[in-house]
Amino acid sequence: MMFNTYLNFNGNCAEAFRFYERCFGGKIEFLQTFGESPMKESVTPDQYGLVMHVTLKVDGDTLMGSDAPGDRYEQPQGMYVSIAPKTYEDGERIFKELSDGGQVEMPFQQTFWSAGFGMTKDRFGIPWMVNCEAAPA
After folding, report:
1. Which of 51, 59, 75, 127 has a beta carbon 3.0–4.6 Å from 80's, enabling a disulfide?
2. pTM value?
3. Phi-psi region at 113: left, alpha or beta (left = phi > 0; alpha = psi -120 to 50)
């Protein structure tokens, strides 16, 4: 069994996933808007540009998302997307990039369980935990 994270956005899914692609070093393998999909008739023309589905692959893992059409968007709460960078330096860099324009909840720092751990909400409203077990080089 695999678990994959599926994120919802309020109209900025494509922008967020382009940012995640650069930040995490992955590749967007699929992106389709409502206007490009067979579901085109189920949304209003002003929603055609919203992302119906996007898939980002990073080191064999999958991050997916979409825009929530109309009034169906709810800001994420009660969860974090937890990532485990391979190196401490990647952990620091990723945390800094995710935090830029967002809100740091716990700075990236050494903890009793991790060489580097931090919690932040990115500028798109997605909460992240960056947990790096590798010590600094």
Report:
1. 127
2. 0.94
3. alpha
